[in-house]
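ARCHIVE CARD
CATEGORY: sequence design from structure
SOURCE FIELD: tokenized fold
FIELD CONTENT:
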């Protein structure tokens, strides 16, 4: 299938699902985390599909940089999810599948970076 829009990219689609998982998970966090880890984790997660879509619209030269920024957001999310687990902000069994999705997002983004020319 030809890529006509960023919406056709696996990286965008899976990262959008990841954002939904993050929002669902962070609803379990204590209210006093609303402006702390909850907010930070949501912003980092939203940054992933946002950078993929923005980079796709910018064209090849800038696209690679945007995907690399999305990878940074993905790494932030993994770190923040691990913090949430260690701080017991949600049950480990609720965090584990979200961490798995985060890893999958990272794999797809790495593949996308490798497929783009480094200019």
């Amino acid at each position: 299938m030809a890529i006509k829009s960023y919406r056709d990219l696996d990286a965008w689609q899976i990262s959008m699902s990841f954002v939904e998982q993050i929002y669902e998970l962070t609803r379990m966090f204590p209210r006093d985390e609303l402006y702390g880890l909850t907010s930070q984790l949501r912003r980092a997660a939203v940054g992933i599909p946002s950078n993929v879509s923005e980079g796709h619209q910018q064209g090849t030269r800038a696209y690679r940089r945007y995907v690399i920024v999305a990878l940074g957001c993905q790494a932030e999310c993994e770190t923040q999810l691990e913090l949430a687990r260690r701080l017991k902000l949600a049950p480990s069994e609720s965090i584990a599948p979200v961490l798995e999705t985060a890893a999958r997002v990272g794999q797809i983004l790495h593949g996308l970076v490798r497929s783009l020319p480094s200019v």
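CARD ANNOTATION: The domain at 7-115 is CATH 1.20.1440.60 (de novo design (two linked rop proteins)). DSSP finds four helices and no strands in the chain.
SHELF: design records, drawer C
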